[in-house]
């Protein structure tokens, strides 16, 4: 078989582990040929690809980013691109395509599959917000980075008697904020799923200072927003990919806390640091398992599906199920973290 693989959308620790695993399983297990498209669907549309053999994927298991490069596709171009992709992959004689990506990529993959293309998706995102899978690789790494940041911010906050507002990624789902906030023991956690109360954050800080604790750390997801009437808040613009470019809730919230509390409050925006660098062992294993199962799915003819984690098993889930609704933080998970405001 001739299998194409590509990585699209925002990068994520563990992408290289999937590519490596696909190549290993396809070559050693099935004697397939694997080609890697450069820069996501752009490379497929422009016919930019290279053959991937064992040497091409040697030494990449622990490497962050993606050796194939990635890109985002503008929403308006998506359908047109799907049609072109269909022709191109036929021209290239592809027996199967394995796109590795998040919501946008899986939506495109689902459209390609509906058009009759042999597609097996692999979900990825540090946000962990893809439905139909319990986890995506990259999330564990991002939570680890954010947790370490909170640990570090606590010691400097204490030395200077400051309030630290650490902004983590998560546009629509607050999984990173929830889990890094819990693991780091943040005193306040603000999620996109529930408008937060600045009044309650202030009460929490005041209460801590009143009992002699001279610092506080608030962990806020980039997509979190204040409840109506709590503070002046500038919303972000929608970009060409249909994503909100956030106006920086971390900065805005730190300014509001400083003004209201009369205490120094500093914003720390973690940004893409959460997506870079070495994947954790958990993410490497999950990514490797996804790659192995994607190749097996290709050989079974399980097209229009993606690999998914259910409990400890890897199963196949329809691509359409993965993209209908994002997996957001449910109320019972918020209740377990007393510090969600
Ligand atoms: O979806 C993953 C993610 O890292 C989000 O958490 C974040 O909002 C977005 O991608 C950032 O995208 P970009 O790399 O285009 O800035």
UniProtKB/TrEMBL annotation:
SUPFAM superfamilies: Phosphofructokinase (SSF53784). Mg(2+) binds at residue 103. Its cofactor is Mg(2+). One of its GO terms (cellular component) is 6-phosphofructokinase complex. GO terms for molecular function: 6-phosphofructokinase activity; AMP binding; ATP binding; diphosphate-fructose-6-phosphate 1-phosphotransferase activity; fructose-6-phosphate binding; identical protein binding; metal ion binding; monosaccharide binding. Keywords: ATP-binding, Cytoplasm, Glycolysis, Kinase, Magnesium, Metal-binding, Nucleotide-binding, Transferase. ATP binds at residues 10, 72-73, 102-105. It holds the Pfam family PFK. GO terms for biological process: canonical glycolysis; fructose 1,6-bisphosphate metabolic process; fructose 6-phosphate metabolic process. It catalyses: beta-D-fructose 6-phosphate + ATP = beta-D-fructose 1,6-bisphosphate + ADP + H(+). NCBIfam families: PFK_mixed, PRK03202.1. PANTHER family: ATP-DEPENDENT 6-PHOSPHOFRUCTOKINASE 3, PHOSPHOFRUCTOKINASE. The record marks 104 as: Important for substrate specificity. Homodimer or homotetramer. Its EC number is 2.7.1.11. It is found in: Cytoplasm. Substrate binds at residues 125-127, 162, 169-171, 222, 266, 272-275. It comes from the Bacteria. Residues 2-298 form the Phosphofructokinase domain. Pathway: Carbohydrate degradation; glycolysis; D-glyceraldehyde 3-phosphate and glycerone phosphate from D-glucose: step 3/4. This is ATP-dependent 6-phosphofructokinase. Catalyzes the phosphorylation of D-fructose 6-phosphate to fructose 1,6-bisphosphate by ATP, the first committing step of glycolysis. Belongs to the phosphofructokinase type A (PFKA) family. Mixed-substrate PFK group III subfamily.
